[in-house]
Amino acid sequence: MRVWVFKINTKRGWRFDQYFKSRARGVYPMGDEGWIKSASSLRYLREEVKRGDLFLCYETDRKELRGVARAASNGRDVGMGSLIDFCPPARAVRLQNPLKRQPDIDHILAFTPHRGRGTVQEIDRDEFARLKRILLRKNPGQARELRRILG
To answer: Which homologous superfamily does the CATH classification assign to the domain defined by 3-144?
Structure first.
């Protein structure tokens, strides 16, 4: 399993709460060819993102990590409309206490522009280990759910 951040800008008219609060029972399509344009993001989706990978849902303009989901499909860069499918919203975790970029997650390069501005960025293992501890500490009431999805 690999860990990725999926970034959106809510000023473009979409928020992660639309996913987390959805009553959809099946997989949830995320991103399409018009939405994700970064060459590196498209390469990650085409070549590296696999079903079961973990996605951290980040809103760039709010600078908040809003929740966690799993990939329900392999990534793709063309074709079926969406470029990745997320697990049904009921199996994802919407954080009761979203993590703020500062001070919670600014140690992770994928949340900063230093690694690029692409929609999909990889999270390093050592960065994820620290992030997992922060997620659990900031959201103790969701510890069971978070441990389930974080693995």
So the answer is: ph1033 like domains (3.10.590.10)
C-alpha to C-alpha distance for 84 and 100, rounded to whole angstroms? 25
Would you call 25 helix, strand, or coil by DSSP? coil
Residue 64, pLDDT score: 96
CB 60 within 8 A of CB 7: yes
- CA-CA distances (angstroms) from residue 112 to 14, 108, 109? 20, 7, 5
For residue 131, pLDDT beyond 90: yes
Q: Is the preceding peptide bond at 103 cis, omega within 30 degrees of 0?
A: yes
Q: How far is CA 94 from the centre of its chain?
A: 11
pLDDT exceeds 80 at position 23:
yes
Kindly list the domain boundaries of the chain, sorted by start residue: 3-144
